[in-house]
Amino acid sequence: MTVTESEVANLLEGEQQRTRAEEEYNISHIYIAVPETAATEQVRQAKARADQVLRELREGGDFGQAAVSYSQGPDALKGGSIGWRNSGQLPELFVAALERMQPGEISGVLRGPNGFHILKLNDRRGKEGAQAVTQTHVRHILLKPSEIQSAAEARSKLEELRDRIAAGEDFGELARTYSEDTVSAAKGGDLGWVAPKQLVPEFEGAMNGLATNQLSDPVQTPFGLHLIQVLGRRQQDVSEERARQAARSQIHARKADDRYAQWVRQLRDEAYVEYLLDEVN
User: Fold this and answer.
1) Does residue 120 contact residue 62 with C-beta atoms inside 8 Å?
2) Which sign, positive or negative, has the C-alpha torsion 7, 8, 11, 15?
3) Which tops the pLDDT comparison, 128 or 35?
4) Of 113, 150, 217, 244, which alpha carbon lies 20 to 30 A from 17's?
5) Which whole number is the average pLDDT over 111-140?
6) The listed CATH number (3.40.50.700, 3.10.50.40, 3.40.190.10, 3.40.50.720) that belongs to domain 132-237
7) ∠ at Cα 41 (35, 44), nearest 5°?
8) Long-range Cβ pairs for the range 267-275 (8 Å, 24+)
9) Crossing angle for the helix pair 40-58 and 63-70, nearest 10 degrees?
């Protein structure tokens, strides 16, 4: 499903909304399932079971033990522990309850489209201010070993290109001519500004060991062999982009919740029940 930039901008409008999008919660969860085709009596029984579990917890019962005993969620055997999740990774139903809770508190019984939920908020954390990372401006020439070109031949070719660049030839022109990364080759091998963990570890390790304008030896990665050059480094505040990513995830999760509920309603509306009566002789 699509999340538009205007939706992200609307969510981030105002500091309060931004803080909410970046909020993270450490939670535990008890889930009492209700079948999609449940009859009214089944729903009532599931609600009664959830209410009973909540009473036990409010009377001092251990949440983890209650989760092991009663929860039908995938995290039941871990005492219901879900761990840290940002608000975009949680259903809107959960976020609305968690926003009003303090660490250590237990929610009421929450009715979702597929059952009843009880949450425990173990801890919470929010925006920590500016988040600066070192970004690297890098370019490369990629050669891929194949039936036509062995790995040894690709390495030898890159060493030759390295010598030609060191002798004064233009890296960008050679990248356009020889690199088999067609996307970056059109830009002279330029990969732009990259953040930590954005590239495969073998490439990033070699890149981080280079000084500005230094050429690497041929570097082997799962993609092939690379000749790498670092063009510059900078400290960049990425908190804004991370806020946008969190907001995008939150909107996506909310749409998923809405779509699921709509799907369930559609199934129920389209359900056809035929009653067959025994013939009376």
Assistant:
1) no
2) negative
3) 35
4) 113
5) 84
6) 3.10.50.40
7) 85
8) 267/36, 271/37
9) 160
Taking each helix axis from N to C end, the angle separating 15-22 and 239-270, rounded to the nearest 10 degrees, works out to: 80
CA 267 to chain CA mean position, Å: 29
Backbone angles phi, psi at 229, to 5 degrees: -135, 130
Per DSSP bridges, beta strands 81-86 and 110-112 are: unpaired
Q: Give residue 137's identity as a one-letter amino acid code.
A: H
**244, pLDDT greater than 70:** no
Its pTM stands at: 0.45
SS3 163: helix
**CA neighbor of 27 nearest in space, from 63, 68, 65:** 63
Residues 97 and 117 sit within 8 Å (Cβ to Cβ): no
By DSSP bridging, strand 132-143 and strand 81-86 are: unpaired
Please indicate whether the domains covering 5-12+22-128+241-270 and 132-237 agree at the CATH topology level: yes
